[in-house]
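Dear H.,

Thanks for agreeing to be a second pair of eyes. The structure we're designing against is below in token form, covering all 129 positions.
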């Protein structure tokens, strides 16, 4: 976050009665320490033709960090699943039935079975589709 955002955040904490609110300097020092000890989020810096500076998170690095974390990796979901009842997670969206096949992931889960987009399937009648 920018310096102004952090200052606003710290001000809101102070105004709402939070105890032991750190200074901006202490907060930035803690951030730096955490980035060095935990690997941090890799960012790429870009400058527009107008001179505006922008930062972009390194998405492959973030996903790699998630896979490397033994507490996070088992919770990652990349394929949609069809569920009964209410939808509580983004990968359970019913809209997948309405999307063009070329915009879907190559597989979805239904119960304990995995189905692949455009896979050859044998019908009960013995025909293939």
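And this is the sequence the design step returned. I haven't edited it by hand at all.
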């Amino acid at each position: 976050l920018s310096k102004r955002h952090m200052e606003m955040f710290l001000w809101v904490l102070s105004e709402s009665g939070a105890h032991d609110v750190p200074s901006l300097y202490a907060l930035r020092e803690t951030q730096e320490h955490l980035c060095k000890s935990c690997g941090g989020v890799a960012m790429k810096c870009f400058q527009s033709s107008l001179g505006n500076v922008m930062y972009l998170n390194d998405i492959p690095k973030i996903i790699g960090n998630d896979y490397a974390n033994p507490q996070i990796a088992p919770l990652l979901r990349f394929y949609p699943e069809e569920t009964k009842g209410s939808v509580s997670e983004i990968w359970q969206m019913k809209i997948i039935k309405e999307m063009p096949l070329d915009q879907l992931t190559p597989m979805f889960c239904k119960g304990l079975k995995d189905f692949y987009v455009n896979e050859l399937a044998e019908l009960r009648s013995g025909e293939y589709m």
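Two observations from my side: Residues 10 and 21 are 7 Å apart (CA to CA). Strands lie at 43-47, 53-57, 81-82, 107-110, 113-116.

Warmly,
E.
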